[in-house]
Amino acid sequence: MPKAKPKPSSTHRPENSVLASLLRELRLASGMTQAQAATALGLTQTGISDFETSDRGLELLVVRDLVRVYGADWMAFVEELERRLVAAPKPASALIKKPSDPVRKKPK
Description:
Pfam families: HTH_31. It comes from Dyella flava. By secondary structure, the chain is mainly alpha-helical. The protein has a single domain (14-94), classed as Orthogonal Bundle (434 Repressor (Amino-terminal Domain)). Helix content is 52%, strand content 0%. The chain has 5 helices and no strands. The chain is elongated, with a radius of gyration of 19 Å.
């Protein structure tokens, strides 16, 4: 039976951690603390922390607001996010050769 695909809103998708990491980097590059970012958006510091650790899902408009508060260009942010998503490392299981590969065939 094939594995079920994760729900699109799942905070456990690998893409979510890439997004969360980029937002954290952007906040740090802007020189803002989590508390300052939270105040600017009317959120709590814990909420910003939860976004950055992937413990809480991110809505598109909240991401856009965070990018704006950090003083970054939205389109440049989206382009960098896409670049990082495409460059995502392969899982170790993808490196294992299939039994049909000549290297793994048993000698006769």
